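A reminder before we start the practical. When you read a complex entry, don't treat the lines as separate problems. The point of joint prediction is that each chain is placed relative to the others, so the output describes one connected object in space. Small molecules and nucleic acid strands, if listed, are placed in the same frame. In the example below there are two entries. Take a minute to note the order of the lines before looking further.
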Amino acid sequence: MFQILNLGGSLETYLVLGAVLFGFGLFGMALRKTFIGMLIASELILSGASVNFMAFNHFLAPDPTVGQIITLFIMAIAAAEAAIALSIIIAIYRNYRSIDADTPAELNG
Amino acid sequence: MTTQTFPVEALAGLLLTPPGFTASQALTGLLFLGFVAITLAGAVVATGARMLVRSVAGLALCFLGVAGLYYYLASPFVALMQILIYIGAVCVTIIFAVMLAETAGQEREVKRKPVMTFLGVAGSAAMTAALAWVALGTKWSGAPAAPEAGSLEKVGQSLLTTYSMSFELISVVLLVAIVGSLVLARAGRDK
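Here is the predicted structure of the whole assembly.
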């Protein structure tokens, strides 16, 4: 019964947690109608991937720096992605006065 | 005269330490469960909240819990970077965008059709279940990590030797992102 206190020491806990974070991100991506909500969901997906990398790094990798470096790179990519996405959102808001994902549908030609 | 130390073991013994655990092990396990709960609660708020500002706050909470998990994976540096970059930079930037782009009337999310919501729930739950099934069903085998090899020194050394090319490329990506976002956000400013 008290084995629940040992959860932090097993790889599977982190993998399932990463999968759950990924699932929440996927759900948010499908549900949200605004660009900013989609951006938030994509951050959740990225952090699920990072948790997986860190878990494999700690429990399985022979060289335990690889996962940490990949996670740092994911952080840098996520920051760049957030900056670009937010400036696109601001530009769309200037033109359409809305951040709904359906509004710029007239761009489809 | 004896020095008085704080009686951690005795205190935890009073609070019903589980059999087979020392007090510090039990405390570590409880703290881990707390971080897992924070992560899941943050994810629920981030996807479910109807106002975007609350959603961003849930995202910050989720990142805090993930930083705690990184600490349990023996990498306190990445945990600190997680807090600094994600909560300190990304979440704050998203909040700025929410404040710039949202007016009071628009804050509420438009409701989806119930069928669509159900399909979203079913699809993402199926994906999560499949991933969890693979994670639990596979017999993982690999070299256990050496206790000190993942230290900050080693991370810094391999960043500047093995991964120096990727390191430089990441800096170029960040530079392009900064310039690109400045150009994009400036474009319609004269209107």
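Discuss with your neighbour: Chain B touches chain A through 95 residues (CB under 8 Å). What might explain this?
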